[in-house]
Fold this sequence. Notes:
By secondary structure, the chain is mainly alpha-helical. It is built from 3 helices and no strands. The protein is elongated, with a radius of gyration of 18 Å.
Amino acid sequence: xxxxxxxxxxxxxxxxxxxxxxxxxxxxxxxxxxxxxxxxxxxxxxxxxxxxxxxxxxxxxxxxxxxxxxxxxxxxxxxxxxxxxxx
Length: 87
């Protein structure tokens, strides 16, 4: 069992749904875009060395977005029965 699988199981036990993780992933994707725009603005007007700060925040936000998406997909897979099987 992988890390995201364990997080999905623990989140399901806490009563969270995949919709909550999808909404979180959407917010993190928007934040990543805003951080990338900040990287461009800071790099252009202040200097590219200072652009590393919002760049690091963009990378962290993108990681959180991918992680939330993976947890949501794992939670959906736990709820849905495997396709192609009949009882």
